[in-house]
Amino acid sequence: MTALEDRLPRPSVMGVLNVTPDSFSDGGVHLDPDVAAAAARRMVEDGAAIVDVGGESTRPGSDGVSVEEELARVVPVLERLGGEVPLSIDTAKAEVARTALERGAILVNDVTALRGDPDLAGVVADTGAYLCLMHMQGEPRTMQDEPRYTDVVSEVAGFLEERLTFAVAAGIPEERICLDPGIGFGKTVEHNLELVRRLDVLLALGRPVLVGYSRKSSLKKLTGSDDLLGASIAAAVAAFERGASILRVHDVKPTVDALTVAGAIA
Ligand code: HH2
């Protein structure tokens, strides 16, 4: 069995492919499955190690979609790419995950960290898929209303440790799991910064850490700019330098280049 850190060595770039009408930065862009498939192939050419396909927006304020709707969005894309491009499925639904894994996806990226669908852990355990467990305070509809922590870093670390224990108890080998602080999921600008600043606390849990800062609104709050490319690259490099293994980004080529240089200097 290949451990996640061997399949996705540090640093690996995860390209974001949202097949949704309403994702906060690329909603509607990839609704045509041929366009989405071409974008995914391009990400791999540009150096992405894996492409994360999502059919449900989790942006602040969003409502959920049905299983049928989510499948209708992602299956045509998976059918065009499965086996050709390393794929991750961004879903909290067991049926969507199972369908994606059958069509060649290798990783389940669950922003609910196995708290959403009681059947998801079994699907991951039975298929031997990789898994990303992400921290979120609250739920997408309301999570940015009033995020509160006494110490954001220790609370996120405690949560991820508990979810890791849960996943392992459900039969998912620890070597298959990575952890994610969930940038922007029930967090203020300062919470997000503190989580990356003190990433060592999450790394101490002993699993690779994934960070997804790309194009998030807290970057816009810091820079005041609508163009979030430079801000996103800086966040990815800062996270990498503090030990992150996987960087989830929309702009693959410039991030890969930045990480190549940062890695060479390190
Ligand atoms: N962020 C988003 C979605 N999925 N998964 C992980 N593991 N980590 C993240 O930080 C993360 C995630 C939100 O970003 P995006 O996919 O661009 O938007 P939307 O949820 O609106 O589709």
Give structural notes.
43% of the residues lie in helices and 13% in strands. The protein is globular and about 40 Å long. It contains 11 helices and 8 strands. An 8-stranded parallel sheet has the order 6-5-4-3-2-1-8-7. Strand 4 (107-110), helix 5 and strand 5 (130-134) form a beta-alpha-beta unit. It has 266 residues and is an alpha/beta fold. Helix 3 (67-81) packs parallel to helix 4 (94-102) and helix 10 packs parallel to helix 11. The two termini are 30 Å apart. 50% of the residues are buried. 6-hydroxymethylpterin-diphosphate (HH2) binds at residues 16, 18, 20, 23-25, 54, 57-59, 90, 109, 111, 132, 134, 180, 182-183, 210, 212, 248.
Keywords:
eight-stranded parallel β-sheet; alpha/beta; 266 residues; globular; single chain; binds 6-hydroxymethylpterin-diphosphate
Describe, in short, the structure shown.
The protein is an alpha/beta fold and 266 residues long. It has helices at residues 4-7, 33-45, 67-81, 94-102, 120-127, 152-169, 189-197, 199-203, 217-223, 229-241, 252-265, and strands at residues 12-18, 50-54, 87-90, 107-110, 130-134, 177-180, 210-211, 246-249.
